[in-house]
Amino acid sequence: MFFRENNDMYLGETTIPNVFIDIFMPMANGLYVKVYLLGYKHANDFKSNINFNNKSIAKHLNVPLSDVDESWKFWERKKIIKIHKNDEYDNDYSIEFLDLDRIYRENIYNSSISSNVNNVISNIDDDVRKMFNDINKIIGRYLDSNEKIKLLDIKEKYNMSCDMIVFAYNQRKESGKNPKNVNYMETIFKSWYDDKLYTIEDIKNNQIENSERYKTYKKIFKELGFFRNPSKSEEETIDKWLDEYNFDLDVIFFACSKSKNVSNPSITFINSFLEKWNQNNLKTLDEVKLFEENKRKTNENTKNNYQNYNKQSKGLNIKTRHHEIEQTFTKYSDKELEELLLRSQRNKFK
Fold first, then answer.
1. Which terminal CB of the chain, N or C, has fewer other CB atoms within 10 Å?
2. pTM over 0.85
3. 8 A C-beta contact, residue 32 and residue 75
């Protein structure tokens, strides 16, 4: 239900023909409609400032003058206004708003416009005809004449190839959403144009960069201090962590923290930790931290035991054959040693 509030204060109003709202407004973008309505308001207001012109519209809507010019050219192509040039200035002209009720009676009601539309459509090239046929299959019905004209306007306005338009319809359907509304589809084409996505490859690359998995790659690389895109092999390794090992990001980030004291960290280095944790059937961060803490304690105990063994070995007075010989010789004086040596030699030659 729609209804108006009653108000004692009257500030004036502009009556817009229903023909414009029902037939012509859906053909145009928002700016074209704004320019038409603002110009129409001043054309119907006898108290309007006679100096109000296209520059005034551009200033009022905060848009370039060229956008206002383009809007009037669009409406002139739709044959609902006439542009009357001023001979003195090329950019100065007057706008005549044609009687829409008359246009409806003479053309639409009598099917003249429909005939003109069909003539336009019958003269399209093979690529456009194929585009219409492909879209018919995607939406499960035939495009009507107005939709075909709208798509031709979109193609021209945003410099879209037929393949890109079909690609958009396919993507919309594959996402489980309804691609039947041409006006909504135009918002997709406009966003691509504004983002400077001019080819299907541009669109695919942009969608990859904005996908959830790609965002995950970038988060992991940020943890490692990498400010570049992952290679194909690096993506496959990270996919293994997420899909095969089923690790959460907190576990992967913990593995990344192991590289803080490494001069040249790499995905391969991080993978060595995650492979070991997976082999030990560790899945949660708490399990991984407990495992690493036990490993640290084991390594520390081993190191302490080794150090204690060395200290004890140095403190022991272990006698070897060398010690026994040394102790034997220290019992005698030099003279006594010499006599023992001579005695030993004499006994050998007896």
1. N
2. no
3. yes
Residue with tokens 């319809």: 169
Say which residues have a Cβ less than 8 Å from residue 217's Cβ, sequence separation at least 6.
229, 230, 234, 235, 238
Report the CATH architecture of 125-198.
Orthogonal Bundle (1.10)
Q: What tokens appear for 278 in the block?
A: 């997976």
Amino acid found at 77: R
Question: Do the first three CATH levels of 18-108 and 125-198 match, i.e. the same topology?
Answer: yes
pLDDT in tens, 251-284: 999 999 988 888 888 999 999 999 999 999 998 9
Contacts of 287 (CB under 8 A, 6+ apart): none
Q: What are the Cα distances from residue 214, in Å, to 3, 172, 205, 208?
A: 49, 21, 11, 6
Candidates 211, 288, 280; CA nearest to 249 is: 288
Give me the architecture of the 18-108 domain, per CATH. Orthogonal Bundle (1.10)
H-helix or E-strand containing 331? Answer: none
Domain ranges of the chain: 18-108, 125-198, 212-287
Quick: pLDDT tens for 168-205: 999 888 888 877 788 889 999 998 998 889 899 999 88
Rounded to whole angstroms, how far apart are CA atoms 226 and 262? 14
The burial of 156, by beta-carbon neighbours within 10 Å (0-12 exposed, 13-18 middle, 19 or more buried), is given as exposed
Helix (H) / strand (E) element for 330: namely none
